[in-house]
What does this fold into?
Amino acid sequence: MNLNKAAVVERPFLNMVNAANLAGLSLRHFRRIIKDNPIRRIKIGRRFFVISADLQRWKVEKSIAVAELDDDNSREFPDK
It folds into this structure.
């Protein structure tokens, strides 16, 4: 076994704090985003968990939407 390589563990569920950090958002804003977007969450006991595959899919869709927005707003401004 090679101990020099870091083991990457893909977790099927993320708690809300870790999911918000991966999304680059505050916990409060991330909770608002979940209500309006197709990111599934599961309640286990008293806690909610986000399905990591849905979070990754949402991040890809969000980056595509941001890239399209940047392309639409790529106007040249006149020199002063």
